[in-house]
């Protein structure tokens, strides 16, 4: 049993806003839902499955189902942080394959920027009953310091440099210059990245993603329905999910959960990293990208620094065009969760609807990869492989 | 050279499962949990062993010695501080802070020893300083 080819992404929508002080979170969810339905050529009444994560206000999926007045026969509020939406597409494909729903709506939205969240540099309060949180809170583990420890160890073991990490930001900025909605549309240089202030060793301000309001949505449906809608057909052909954590104290910061979710997705799809024409790679920080690229098998472990250097991730220049919308590093990281926009740009590439300056030629096979929560502690990894028919 | 300054440390969140750890910390003793069925120590401390799921876990006083596995200095904080993973002599690796140190002179594999820092209205928190 496999989900290979059992479901298609028929609609995608990225909210154009990057700052939404005048909108509620529920309103943003509904706006992106409508955008994706319009993109697919479907209506609210066609939706019989709904998927959301912890950014959706209320209890699980229930509050948003009521707000949007949906009638569903399948729902899922799996939360793996920023990678949730890739998991949702996989779960939606499973549900569709089993006949549990026909049209699945996945939404993400939030407004951390309007709410003034210091997302990376302030330890976030969480549920005091969360067992791991109790052992991190007194030590002021911030997002950037957690990812920083991964980068420090990677540098120590493999000789990775700040300049190599900077190339990831530089590549994203080359793409963002063509995106009118990007928060940071200016092209930056390696020198500019490494001379920006260090927030937590060894990560500079420009190694970090943006903090933005907004959101996005996707529609997953049966191939027969997708085919009837007259849009380019984007099939889900492989998916993998995994959780990596501190394993009772057996901590190894040199790899991410993509070492498990990646091979699972490639095996299901029956393709290899060398076949991938475009990759959306989760980019909360530059080190996140580098580790996932290694763990997905685009290069050997420890060679990620060399792989990403010298423009190898720039569309039309390098071997692995990535995040051609500018990614979380330059374009958008709505609700502090970058997984949705990873799916959306992969679908744009497969449809041939990316900006012409960054569109990958003959892009018929794409990968989207997410890593949610804290790379340096516990995180959810999810990999999707998508194919244009 | 950037000397780590004393900073305000949030009071630990304590519950029935973890209270013995914090009470011991108040007495200057650093505890870890070990499973008496599989014999393995673990971190963070749990009532149920994360390796074999046995409920036969016991507190034991650890040596308080370890080495730095990785670290990152939060430089934009009002009082810069070092977050680190320290591998304890007993085996498990734990998240902590390295304190009473030159933040610019930390190193991989550096030997550290436990020290207790007062928290803001709660139990003291075990941290590590250069040995």
Automatic annotation (TrEMBL), chain A:
GO terms for molecular function: acetyl-CoA C-acyltransferase activity. InterPro entries: Thiolase, Thiolase-like, Thiolase_C_2. Residues 243-387 form the Thiolase C-terminal domain. This is Thiolase domain-containing protein.
């Amino acid at each position: 049993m496999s989900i290979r080819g059992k479901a298609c992404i028929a609609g995608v929508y990225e909210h154009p806003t990057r700052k939404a002080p005048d909108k509620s979170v529920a309103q943003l969810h509904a706006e992106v839902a409508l955008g994706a339905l319009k993109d697919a050529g479907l209506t609210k009444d066609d939706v019989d499955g709904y998927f959301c994560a912890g950014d959706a206000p209320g209890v699980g999926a229930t509050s948003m189902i009521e707000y949007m007045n949906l009638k569903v026969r399948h729902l899922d509020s799996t939360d793996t942080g920023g990678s949730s939406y890739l998991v949702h597409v996989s779960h939606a494909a499973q549900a569709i394959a089993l006949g549990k729903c026909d049209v699945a709506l996945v939404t993400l939205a939030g407004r951390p920027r309007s709410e003034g969240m210091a997302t990376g540099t302030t330890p976030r309060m969480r549920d005091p009953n969360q067992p791991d949180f109790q052992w991190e809170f007194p030590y002021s583990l911030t997002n950037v310091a957690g990812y920083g420890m991964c980068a420090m160890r990677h540098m120590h073991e493999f000789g990775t440099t700040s300049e190599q990490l900077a190339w990831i930001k530089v590549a994203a900025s080359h793409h963002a210059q063509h995106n009118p909605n990007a928060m940071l549309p200016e092209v930056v240089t390696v020198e500019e990245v490494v001379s920006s202030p260090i927030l937590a060793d060894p990560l500079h301000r420009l190694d970090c993603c943006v903090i933005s309001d907004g959101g996005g949505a996707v529609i997953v449906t049966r191939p027969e329905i997708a085919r009837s809608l007259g849009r380019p057909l984007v099939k889900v052909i492989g998916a993998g999910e995994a959780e990596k954590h501190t394993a009772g104290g057996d901590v190894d910061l040199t790899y991410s959960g993509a070492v498990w979710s990646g091979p699972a997705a490639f095996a299901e799809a029956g393709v290899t990293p060398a076949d991938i024409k475009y990759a959306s790679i989760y980019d909360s920080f530059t080190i996140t990208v580098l580790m996932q690229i290694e763990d997905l098998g685009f290069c050997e472990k420890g060679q990620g620094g060399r792989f990403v250097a010298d423009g190898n991730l720039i569309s039309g220049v390098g071997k692995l065009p990535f995040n051609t919308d500018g990614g979380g590093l330059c374009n958008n990281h709505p609700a502090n969760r970058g997984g949705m926009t990873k799916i959306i740009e992969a679908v744009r590439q497969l449809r041939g609807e990316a900006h012409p300056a960054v569109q990958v030629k003959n892009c018929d096979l794409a990968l989207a990869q997410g890593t949610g929560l804290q790379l340096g502690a516990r995180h959810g990894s999810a990999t999707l492989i998508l194919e244009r028919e | 050279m950037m000397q780590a300054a004393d900073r305000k440390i949030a009071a630990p969140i304590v519950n029935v499962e973890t209270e013995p750890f914090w009470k011991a910390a108040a007495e200057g003793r650093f505890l870890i949990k070990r499973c008496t069925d599989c014999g393995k120590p673990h971190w963070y401390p749990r009532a149920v062993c994360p390796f074999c799921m046995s409920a036969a876990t016991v507190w034991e006083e650890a040596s308080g010695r370890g080495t730095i596995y990785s670290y990152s200095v939060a430089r934009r904080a009002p009082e810069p501080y070092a977050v680190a993973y320290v591998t304890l002599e007993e085996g498990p690796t734990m998240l902590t802070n390295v304190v009473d140190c030159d933040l610019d002179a930390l190193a991989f594999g550096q030997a550290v020893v436990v020290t207790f820092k007062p928290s803001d209205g709660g139990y003291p928190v075990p941290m590590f300083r250069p040995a």
